[in-house]
Design goal:
Blueprint lengths: L2 H14 L4 H16 L11 H24 L5 H23 L9 H7 L16 H12 L7 E5 L5 H6 L5 E6 L2 H10 L4 E4 L17 E4 L5 H14 L7 E6 L2 H7 L2 H10 L2 E14 L4 H8 L7 H6 L4 E11 L7 H11 L2
Parallel strand pairs: 1-2, 1-4, 2-3, 4-5
Antiparallel strand pairs: 5-7, 6-7
The chain binds S-adenosylmethionine (SAM).
Length: about 350
Protein backbone atom coordinates (compact mmCIF):
# COMPACT_ATOMS: atom_id res chain seq x y z
CA UNK A 1 0.00 0.00 0.00
CA UNK A 2 1.40 3.43 -0.95
CA UNK A 3 1.91 6.12 1.68
CA UNK A 4 -0.83 8.28 0.07
CA UNK A 5 -3.31 5.41 0.26
CA UNK A 6 -2.33 4.74 3.81
CA UNK A 7 -3.03 8.36 4.80
CA UNK A 8 -6.36 8.33 2.99
CA UNK A 9 -7.49 5.14 4.70
CA UNK A 10 -6.52 6.35 8.15
CA UNK A 11 -8.43 9.59 7.47
CA UNK A 12 -11.46 7.47 6.62
CA UNK A 13 -11.10 5.41 9.79
CA UNK A 14 -10.77 8.60 11.82
CA UNK A 15 -13.97 9.96 10.29
CA UNK A 16 -15.70 6.66 10.66
CA UNK A 17 -15.07 6.57 14.38
CA UNK A 18 -16.49 10.07 14.58
CA UNK A 19 -20.04 9.22 15.57
CA UNK A 20 -22.40 12.20 16.12
CA UNK A 21 -22.96 10.89 19.62
CA UNK A 22 -19.51 12.15 20.58
CA UNK A 23 -20.86 15.67 20.22
CA UNK A 24 -24.41 14.97 21.38
CA UNK A 25 -23.53 13.44 24.77
CA UNK A 26 -21.33 16.33 26.07
CA UNK A 27 -23.97 18.80 24.85
CA UNK A 28 -26.67 16.94 26.80
CA UNK A 29 -24.41 16.79 29.85
CA UNK A 30 -24.26 20.61 29.78
CA UNK A 31 -28.05 20.70 29.51
CA UNK A 32 -28.41 18.39 32.53
CA UNK A 33 -25.89 20.36 34.61
CA UNK A 34 -27.88 23.50 33.88
CA UNK A 35 -31.29 21.99 34.64
CA UNK A 36 -30.48 19.51 37.42
CA UNK A 37 -27.12 20.64 38.75
CA UNK A 38 -25.63 17.23 37.82
CA UNK A 39 -25.53 14.60 35.09
CA UNK A 40 -28.01 11.77 35.77
CA UNK A 41 -25.76 8.81 36.56
CA UNK A 42 -27.49 6.31 34.37
CA UNK A 43 -28.12 8.50 31.28
CA UNK A 44 -29.01 7.35 28.61
CA UNK A 45 -29.86 3.97 30.13
CA UNK A 46 -32.48 5.33 32.53
CA UNK A 47 -36.02 3.92 32.62
CA UNK A 48 -38.90 5.55 30.80
CA UNK A 49 -40.24 7.28 33.91
CA UNK A 50 -36.93 9.01 34.60
CA UNK A 51 -36.53 9.84 30.90
CA UNK A 52 -40.00 11.40 30.82
CA UNK A 53 -39.15 13.51 33.86
CA UNK A 54 -35.87 14.72 32.32
CA UNK A 55 -37.48 15.38 28.96
CA UNK A 56 -40.28 17.37 30.57
CA UNK A 57 -37.77 19.47 32.55
CA UNK A 58 -35.87 20.22 29.32
CA UNK A 59 -39.07 20.94 27.41
CA UNK A 60 -40.20 23.37 30.13
CA UNK A 61 -36.78 25.06 30.13
CA UNK A 62 -36.86 25.52 26.36
CA UNK A 63 -40.43 26.81 26.50
CA UNK A 64 -39.45 29.31 29.19
CA UNK A 65 -37.08 30.78 26.58
CA UNK A 66 -39.83 30.88 23.92
CA UNK A 67 -42.21 32.55 26.42
CA UNK A 68 -39.60 35.15 27.36
CA UNK A 69 -39.16 35.89 23.64
CA UNK A 70 -42.93 36.19 23.17
CA UNK A 71 -43.03 38.82 25.91
CA UNK A 72 -40.39 40.92 24.09
CA UNK A 73 -42.58 42.75 21.63
CA UNK A 74 -39.74 44.04 19.43
CA UNK A 75 -38.47 40.64 18.18
CA UNK A 76 -38.62 39.82 14.48
CA UNK A 77 -39.95 36.46 13.18
CA UNK A 78 -36.35 35.55 12.29
CA UNK A 79 -35.33 35.96 15.94
CA UNK A 80 -38.15 33.70 17.12
CA UNK A 81 -37.14 31.24 14.42
CA UNK A 82 -33.50 31.18 15.63
CA UNK A 83 -34.70 30.18 19.11
CA UNK A 84 -37.05 27.52 17.77
CA UNK A 85 -34.35 26.03 15.60
CA UNK A 86 -31.97 25.61 18.52
CA UNK A 87 -34.63 24.54 21.03
CA UNK A 88 -36.44 21.99 18.87
CA UNK A 89 -33.17 20.52 17.58
CA UNK A 90 -31.89 20.10 21.13
CA UNK A 91 -35.09 18.33 22.22
CA UNK A 92 -34.77 15.91 19.28
CA UNK A 93 -31.19 15.13 20.27
CA UNK A 94 -32.26 14.25 23.79
CA UNK A 95 -34.97 11.96 22.46
CA UNK A 96 -32.59 10.28 19.98
CA UNK A 97 -29.89 9.71 22.55
CA UNK A 98 -32.27 8.01 24.94
CA UNK A 99 -34.06 5.95 22.26
CA UNK A 100 -30.81 4.76 20.64
CA UNK A 101 -28.21 4.72 23.39
CA UNK A 102 -25.56 2.79 21.45
CA UNK A 103 -25.01 2.04 17.77
CA UNK A 104 -27.46 4.30 15.97
CA UNK A 105 -26.02 6.99 13.64
CA UNK A 106 -22.95 5.04 12.57
CA UNK A 107 -22.23 5.40 8.84
CA UNK A 108 -20.61 2.54 6.94
CA UNK A 109 -16.94 2.87 5.96
CA UNK A 110 -18.02 3.02 2.31
CA UNK A 111 -20.36 5.95 2.96
CA UNK A 112 -17.68 7.86 4.83
CA UNK A 113 -15.16 7.23 2.07
CA UNK A 114 -17.60 8.39 -0.64
CA UNK A 115 -18.41 11.71 1.03
CA UNK A 116 -15.00 12.36 2.63
CA UNK A 117 -13.70 14.82 0.00
CA UNK A 118 -16.86 16.62 -1.03
CA UNK A 119 -16.56 20.38 -1.55
CA UNK A 120 -17.31 22.82 1.28
CA UNK A 121 -20.96 23.75 1.81
CA UNK A 122 -21.97 27.16 0.39
CA UNK A 123 -24.69 29.06 2.23
CA UNK A 124 -25.70 30.95 -0.96
CA UNK A 125 -26.82 27.60 -2.37
CA UNK A 126 -28.63 26.80 0.89
CA UNK A 127 -26.20 23.98 1.51
CA UNK A 128 -25.99 22.44 4.95
CA UNK A 129 -24.69 18.89 4.95
CA UNK A 130 -26.57 16.20 6.74
CA UNK A 131 -24.48 13.56 8.49
CA UNK A 132 -23.19 10.79 6.18
CA UNK A 133 -25.26 8.32 8.15
CA UNK A 134 -28.46 10.33 7.56
CA UNK A 135 -27.78 10.22 3.80
CA UNK A 136 -27.15 6.50 4.03
CA UNK A 137 -30.42 5.81 5.87
CA UNK A 138 -32.37 7.92 3.37
CA UNK A 139 -30.93 5.82 0.54
CA UNK A 140 -31.87 2.64 2.42
CA UNK A 141 -35.47 3.93 2.46
CA UNK A 142 -35.36 4.63 -1.29
CA UNK A 143 -34.05 1.12 -1.92
CA UNK A 144 -37.18 -0.34 -0.30
CA UNK A 145 -39.25 1.19 -3.12
CA UNK A 146 -37.23 0.62 -6.28
CA UNK A 147 -36.39 -2.33 -8.51
CA UNK A 148 -33.39 -2.76 -10.86
CA UNK A 149 -35.65 -1.38 -13.63
CA UNK A 150 -36.44 1.85 -11.76
CA UNK A 151 -35.25 5.40 -12.41
CA UNK A 152 -34.39 7.72 -9.56
CA UNK A 153 -34.05 11.51 -9.77
CA UNK A 154 -32.19 13.66 -7.22
CA UNK A 155 -33.21 17.33 -7.24
CA UNK A 156 -30.21 18.98 -5.60
CA UNK A 157 -27.72 16.59 -4.06
CA UNK A 158 -25.28 18.11 -1.61
CA UNK A 159 -25.84 15.03 0.55
CA UNK A 160 -24.50 12.87 -2.31
CA UNK A 161 -27.37 10.40 -2.20
CA UNK A 162 -26.91 9.68 -5.92
CA UNK A 163 -23.36 8.54 -5.28
CA UNK A 164 -24.34 6.33 -2.35
CA UNK A 165 -27.22 4.85 -4.36
CA UNK A 166 -24.95 4.15 -7.34
CA UNK A 167 -23.04 1.60 -5.23
CA UNK A 168 -26.06 -0.60 -4.53
CA UNK A 169 -28.59 -0.03 -7.33
CA UNK A 170 -28.65 -1.18 -10.95
CA UNK A 171 -31.29 1.20 -12.27
CA UNK A 172 -30.83 4.67 -13.77
CA UNK A 173 -29.86 7.63 -11.60
CA UNK A 174 -30.15 11.33 -12.51
CA UNK A 175 -29.07 14.42 -10.56
CA UNK A 176 -30.29 17.96 -11.33
CA UNK A 177 -28.20 20.48 -9.40
CA UNK A 178 -26.95 24.05 -9.64
CA UNK A 179 -23.55 23.50 -8.03
CA UNK A 180 -21.16 22.27 -10.74
CA UNK A 181 -18.62 21.21 -8.05
CA UNK A 182 -21.09 18.61 -6.77
CA UNK A 183 -21.96 17.38 -10.26
CA UNK A 184 -18.24 16.94 -11.05
CA UNK A 185 -17.69 15.14 -7.73
CA UNK A 186 -20.49 12.68 -8.49
CA UNK A 187 -19.45 12.22 -12.12
CA UNK A 188 -15.82 11.43 -11.25
CA UNK A 189 -16.89 8.68 -8.85
CA UNK A 190 -20.01 7.39 -10.60
CA UNK A 191 -19.81 8.08 -14.37
CA UNK A 192 -23.09 6.19 -14.97
CA UNK A 193 -25.09 8.77 -13.02
CA UNK A 194 -26.54 11.36 -15.42
CA UNK A 195 -25.72 14.84 -14.13
CA UNK A 196 -27.85 17.81 -15.24
CA UNK A 197 -26.73 21.37 -14.49
CA UNK A 198 -30.13 22.96 -13.82
CA UNK A 199 -31.27 25.93 -11.77
CA UNK A 200 -34.35 24.53 -10.07
CA UNK A 201 -35.69 28.01 -9.24
CA UNK A 202 -35.46 29.53 -12.70
CA UNK A 203 -34.87 26.62 -15.07
CA UNK A 204 -36.95 23.62 -16.08
CA UNK A 205 -36.73 19.84 -16.31
CA UNK A 206 -36.05 18.47 -19.84
CA UNK A 207 -39.38 17.42 -21.41
CA UNK A 208 -38.12 13.92 -22.19
CA UNK A 209 -37.81 13.25 -18.44
CA UNK A 210 -41.33 14.26 -17.40
CA UNK A 211 -43.30 11.57 -15.53
CA UNK A 212 -40.54 9.01 -15.97
CA UNK A 213 -39.19 8.53 -12.43
CA UNK A 214 -40.18 5.91 -9.89
CA UNK A 215 -38.57 7.87 -7.07
CA UNK A 216 -37.59 11.52 -6.66
CA UNK A 217 -35.33 12.57 -3.80
CA UNK A 218 -35.01 16.17 -2.63
CA UNK A 219 -33.95 18.33 0.30
CA UNK A 220 -35.51 21.64 -0.73
CA UNK A 221 -34.92 25.11 0.74
CA UNK A 222 -37.06 25.87 3.77
CA UNK A 223 -39.00 28.90 2.58
CA UNK A 224 -42.38 28.39 0.99
CA UNK A 225 -41.70 29.85 -2.45
CA UNK A 226 -38.41 28.01 -3.09
CA UNK A 227 -39.69 24.83 -1.49
CA UNK A 228 -42.44 24.77 -4.10
CA UNK A 229 -40.00 25.51 -6.95
CA UNK A 230 -38.34 22.20 -6.02
CA UNK A 231 -41.52 20.30 -5.20
CA UNK A 232 -43.25 21.21 -8.48
CA UNK A 233 -40.23 19.81 -10.31
CA UNK A 234 -40.48 16.64 -8.23
CA UNK A 235 -44.16 16.31 -9.14
CA UNK A 236 -43.59 16.63 -12.87
CA UNK A 237 -40.72 14.13 -12.75
CA UNK A 238 -42.73 11.51 -10.84
CA UNK A 239 -44.51 8.72 -12.72
CA UNK A 240 -48.29 8.64 -12.34
CA UNK A 241 -48.08 5.32 -10.59
CA UNK A 242 -49.33 4.06 -7.28
CA UNK A 243 -45.85 2.85 -6.43
CA UNK A 244 -43.98 6.05 -7.29
CA UNK A 245 -42.62 7.98 -4.30
CA UNK A 246 -41.15 11.38 -3.48
CA UNK A 247 -38.60 11.31 -0.63
CA UNK A 248 -38.40 14.82 0.74
CA UNK A 249 -36.16 15.86 3.62
CA UNK A 250 -37.75 18.89 5.13
CA UNK A 251 -37.78 20.82 8.39
CA UNK A 252 -41.09 22.69 8.70
CA UNK A 253 -39.92 25.09 11.47
CA UNK A 254 -39.33 27.94 9.04
CA UNK A 255 -42.81 27.58 7.54
CA UNK A 256 -44.37 27.43 10.98
CA UNK A 257 -42.50 30.18 12.83
CA UNK A 258 -41.20 32.52 10.11
CA UNK A 259 -43.81 32.45 7.41
CA UNK A 260 -46.80 31.00 9.24
CA UNK A 261 -47.55 28.91 6.17
CA UNK A 262 -47.40 25.33 7.39
CA UNK A 263 -51.13 24.91 6.88
CA UNK A 264 -50.86 26.43 3.38
CA UNK A 265 -48.12 23.92 2.54
CA UNK A 266 -50.26 20.99 3.71
CA UNK A 267 -53.35 22.25 1.85
CA UNK A 268 -51.37 22.77 -1.34
CA UNK A 269 -49.92 19.26 -1.19
CA UNK A 270 -53.45 17.86 -1.02
CA UNK A 271 -54.72 20.15 -3.78
CA UNK A 272 -52.07 18.73 -6.13
CA UNK A 273 -53.16 15.20 -5.34
CA UNK A 274 -50.19 14.34 -3.14
CA UNK A 275 -50.52 12.65 0.19
CA UNK A 276 -48.06 11.92 2.94
CA UNK A 277 -47.58 8.17 2.89
CA UNK A 278 -45.13 8.19 5.77
CA UNK A 279 -43.62 10.97 7.86
CA UNK A 280 -40.59 10.20 10.04
CA UNK A 281 -39.84 13.10 12.39
CA UNK A 282 -36.20 13.98 13.09
CA UNK A 283 -34.99 11.46 10.47
CA UNK A 284 -31.89 13.44 9.36
CA UNK A 285 -29.29 15.29 11.37
CA UNK A 286 -27.31 18.24 10.02
CA UNK A 287 -23.91 19.21 11.43
CA UNK A 288 -24.21 22.77 12.70
CA UNK A 289 -20.96 23.47 14.49
CA UNK A 290 -18.60 25.82 12.68
CA UNK A 291 -21.03 26.36 9.79
CA UNK A 292 -21.88 29.69 8.15
CA UNK A 293 -25.50 28.71 8.74
CA UNK A 294 -25.04 28.56 12.52
CA UNK A 295 -23.18 31.89 12.50
CA UNK A 296 -26.24 33.38 10.85
CA UNK A 297 -28.57 31.76 13.42
CA UNK A 298 -26.45 33.14 16.30
CA UNK A 299 -26.68 36.64 14.86
CA UNK A 300 -30.47 36.48 15.33
CA UNK A 301 -30.52 35.15 18.89
CA UNK A 302 -32.10 37.83 21.12
CA UNK A 303 -30.70 38.88 24.50
CA UNK A 304 -32.51 36.74 27.02
CA UNK A 305 -30.98 36.23 30.44
CA UNK A 306 -31.58 32.51 30.85
CA UNK A 307 -28.52 30.23 31.27
CA UNK A 308 -30.09 27.44 29.19
CA UNK A 309 -30.01 29.70 26.14
CA UNK A 310 -26.21 29.88 26.18
CA UNK A 311 -26.08 26.09 26.14
CA UNK A 312 -28.58 25.84 23.30
CA UNK A 313 -26.28 28.01 21.18
CA UNK A 314 -23.90 25.03 21.08
CA UNK A 315 -26.48 22.56 19.82
CA UNK A 316 -24.35 20.33 17.56
CA UNK A 317 -26.98 19.11 15.09
CA UNK A 318 -30.16 20.34 13.47
CA UNK A 319 -32.77 17.97 12.08
CA UNK A 320 -35.27 17.47 9.31
CA UNK A 321 -38.13 15.06 8.84
CA UNK A 322 -38.44 12.54 6.03
CA UNK A 323 -41.68 13.02 4.08
CA UNK A 324 -42.57 10.11 1.81
CA UNK A 325 -45.18 11.39 -0.63
CA UNK A 326 -47.29 9.58 -3.18
CA UNK A 327 -50.15 10.32 -5.53
CA UNK A 328 -53.50 10.01 -3.90
CA UNK A 329 -55.41 7.77 -6.37
CA UNK A 330 -58.75 9.36 -5.51
CA UNK A 331 -57.64 13.01 -5.55
CA UNK A 332 -55.49 13.80 -8.55
CA UNK A 333 -55.31 17.33 -9.98
CA UNK A 334 -57.27 18.04 -13.17
CA UNK A 335 -55.59 17.29 -16.52
CA UNK A 336 -55.50 20.97 -17.49
CA UNK A 337 -53.87 21.99 -14.20
CA UNK A 338 -51.25 19.24 -14.59
CA UNK A 339 -50.46 20.28 -18.17
CA UNK A 340 -50.03 23.90 -17.08
CA UNK A 341 -47.70 22.80 -14.28
CA UNK A 342 -45.60 20.77 -16.70
CA UNK A 343 -45.52 23.61 -19.21
CA UNK A 344 -44.37 26.07 -16.56
CA UNK A 345 -41.68 23.86 -14.98
CA UNK A 346 -40.21 22.03 -17.96
CA UNK A 347 -37.56 23.20 -20.37
C1 LIG B 1 -31.55 23.47 -1.19
S1 LIG B 1 -30.14 22.68 -0.53
C2 LIG B 1 -30.72 22.28 1.09
C3 LIG B 1 -29.79 21.42 1.77
C4 LIG B 1 -29.65 21.37 3.22
N1 LIG B 1 -29.46 19.98 3.56
C5 LIG B 1 -30.66 22.06 4.06
O1 LIG B 1 -31.53 21.40 4.60
O2 LIG B 1 -30.61 23.27 4.23
C6 LIG B 1 -30.13 21.13 -1.35
C7 LIG B 1 -29.37 21.13 -2.65
O3 LIG B 1 -30.00 21.97 -3.59
C8 LIG B 1 -28.98 22.64 -4.35
N2 LIG B 1 -29.54 23.88 -4.82
C9 LIG B 1 -29.73 25.03 -4.15
N3 LIG B 1 -30.32 25.94 -4.94
C10 LIG B 1 -30.50 25.36 -6.15
C11 LIG B 1 -31.07 25.76 -7.37
N4 LIG B 1 -31.56 26.99 -7.53
N5 LIG B 1 -31.11 24.88 -8.37
C12 LIG B 1 -30.61 23.63 -8.23
N6 LIG B 1 -30.07 23.18 -7.09
C13 LIG B 1 -30.01 24.03 -6.07
C14 LIG B 1 -27.83 22.82 -3.39
O4 LIG B 1 -26.61 22.95 -4.09
C15 LIG B 1 -27.92 21.56 -2.58
O5 LIG B 1 -27.18 20.55 -3.16
Amino acid sequence: MSHANHIENSEVMELWSHNPREQIRPFLHDVFRCLEGEIPLEWPLCDVKEYARLYRAFYDGVNEIYDAADRMRSLTPRMHMALRLMGESALYLMKHDWEHPREFHQPSAQTVELVAHRPEAILDYDQLYCTPESSQRRIERVLQWVTPASRVMFLGDDDLGSLLLSRCFEGEIFVAELDQRLLDYVHERAPDVTTLPIDLFLGGIPKSLLRTFDAVVLDPPWDHYHLWCFLYKAMICLKRSEKARIFMSFCPLYLEYMQRKKHVFERRLASWGLQIDQLTPGFHMYSLQGTEFMEMVHSFVPDIELPLLNILKNVPFGFSHLYELRWNPSAQPGALRSRLLEWWHSA
